[in-house]
Amino acid sequence: MSINLTDSANYFKNLPHQVDAFNFLQQVTPPEVLDEFARLYRNNAQTNEFTNDWDSVYKLANAAGAKFPELVAAQWALESGWGQHVSGKYNFFGIKGKGTVHQTWEDYGGGPVTVLAEFKDFNTPYDCIDELVTKWYKNYNGYVGANVAADRNSAAYHLKAEGYATDPVYPQKLISLMNKHA
Questions:
Q1: Is the Cβ–Cβ distance between 136 and 156 less than 8 Å?
Q2: ∠ CA 103-60-6 to the nearest 5 degrees?
Q3: Taking the model in full, what pTM does it have?
Q4: How far is CA 80 from the centre of its chain?
Q5: C-beta separation of 132 from 164 below 8 A
Q6: Alpha helices of the chain — where are they, by DSSP H?
Q7: How far is CA 125 from CA 11, 19, 145, in A?
Q8: Given this model, what pLDDT does residue 2 score?
Q9: Which residues of 47-75 are buried (b: 16+ CB within 10 A; e: fewer)?
Q10: 180: number of Cβ within 10 Å
């Protein structure tokens, strides 16, 4: 018995047996095939024309489902020095995970300390922005995302309150960037 994958996507209802089937397919598919599938599936001008600037980040954040794409752009500007200093391949937000290791600073309440950390590598700018939006803006794994906020400033404070950053004045820095550039 065979199945057309576009039919399975059209009729996907997030039922347990459907999730199991997609998880099985994900596990047995070689990574290079998944990468090419992702490239083709996401083939849009926003992803293909990324120019590492505020507007490109804004467009990708909007495409990923951020309620406040200007906040994502502010995070990009702050976390990566306007795209000049990534913490891993296409990692503009200091997202930790398996990948590139280097020194960074954190503030756990006693002032900044230098630590060695591992930062996730991404295949594309969209993949990085999509992960940020999925895990911090949308409701994810029991976490209430920043999209719940009524406005962009409240969303900036929400990110800090939920533990996104250790910088005590992180929300104020984001708000300042949004006020100047959004």
A1: no
A2: 115
A3: 0.70
A4: 13
A5: no
A6: 5-10, 16-28, 31-41, 45-48, 54-64, 69-80, 125-132, 152-161, 170-181
A7: 29, 27, 21
A8: 79
A9: beebeeebebbbbbbbbbebbbbbbbbbb
A10: 9
Asked if 95 and 128 touch (Cβ cutoff 8 Å), the reply is yes
CA nearest 102: which of 121, 84, 74, 122?
A: 121
Q: Enumerate residues 6+ apart whose C-beta is below 8 A from 98.
A: 118, 120, 121
pLDDT digits (tens), the chain, 182 positions? 678 887 777 777 888 888 888 888 888 988 777 777 776 676 554 455 688 899 999 999 998 999 999 999 999 999 999 999 999 899 999 898 888 887 776 777 777 778 787 899 998 899 999 999 999 999 988 889 999 999 999 999 999 999 888 888 999 999 999 999 97
* DSSP code, position 147: G
Q: Count the neighbouring beta carbons within 10 Å of the beta carbon of residue 168.
A: 12
Q: Which amino acid is at 62?
A: N
What are the phi and psi torsion angles at 103 (to 5°)? Answer: -80, 145
